Structure formats: C-alpha cells, structure tokens
Amino acid sequence: MMARGFTFVELLVVTTIVLILASAVQPLARVTIQRTREAELRRVLREMRSAIDKFKDAADAGQIPTTELKANSEGYPPDLQALVDGVSVANDATGRKLKFLRKVPLDPTMGNDDWGFRAYQDKPDSTSWSGQNVYDVYSKNQGTALDGTKYRDWN
C-alpha cells in the first residue's frame, strides 16, 4: 500500500516558490496604488480649477453681485467653501444660487482636504497664501510622483 500526500520537502519547495512570487508582486502593487492616487489627484485638481474658472467667468459676466465678492478679489472666490455653498445670482428675486462644487474633495495622496492656495496677487512660486482670493489650488504633499515631479508643482 502506497502512502498518498506530499513530502515535507515538496511542501517546502512550493511554499518557497509562492513566497518568491508574492515578494515580486508586492512592489508592482505599490506602484499601481500610487499611480491610481496620482490619477485621482490630477482629476481632483482639474475639477477644482475648473470650478474656480467658472466662478471667475460668472463674476466677470455680472452674474455674481459685488456684495458677494471680497474687495480686491479680482472676481475669484474667497475660499473653496464658497464654491460649495454657492453665491446668490445677481438681479434674481427667487434667491437662486450658483454652485460650482458638490463638496471640497480630499487630496488622495494625503487623505485630507487641506489644500494649498495661491491668490491672484501672489507670486507663481509662492508657498504662502495671502488670503485675498483663491486663484489656484495645489497639493500640500511634499512627496515626489512616479514621474519625478513634486506633487505640489502639478499644474
């Protein structure tokens, strides 16, 4: 009668091969996760910048009353929350509001909604926000992307 099953050596060899394959796949999985987060960051930045541009266009077209705009705002929103809360439409007795974002999105690389801002009056390479308006938004993540650029420099 012959015994069935695997010997200890066979199990050890199979386990070693599985561990080697798993260790080879792990870095690939990390890169895939990072690539997904970077794609989401690009999408979120594009969405917020588009909302800022739509706010500016509405202000330039006179759809937003000057009482809703801060002095020296150049027609840009005072903060991201103004894009979510919306602004009253000029010369509209119904109280209708223009809204530009459903919610302030999270930074997928950091997991929070703590964004960096630039005002229209700030220098393009400024690292501090003057608080006058939101002309541009960027990630505060100090890390480097897969393409070698800094997340905070993404346009």
Write a concise synopsis of the structure shown:
38% of the residues lie in helices and 8% in strands.
Folded structure, characterized:
By secondary structure, the chain is mainly alpha-helical. The chain contains two helices and four strands; from the N terminus they run ααββββ. The protein has one domain (11-153). The strands form two sheets. A two-stranded antiparallel ribbon has the order 1-2. Helices cover 38% and strands 8% of the residues. It has helices spanning 8-60, 80-85, and strands spanning 87-88, 97-98, 115-118, 136-139. The radius of gyration is 25 Å and the shape is elongated.
Helix content: 25-40%
What distance separates the N and C termini? 73 Å
Tally of distinct domains:
1
Shape: elongated
Please state the average pLDDT score.
89
Order of helices and strands: HHEEEE
User: Class by helix and strand content?
Assistant: mainly alpha
What's the quaternary structure here?
single chain
Number of strands: 4
DSSP strand content: 5-15%
Strand order within the widest beta sheet = 1-2
Largest sheet: 2 strands, antiparallel
Counting DSSP H or I runs of 4 or more residues, the number of helices is 2
Low-confidence stretches: none
Overall radius of gyration:
25 Å
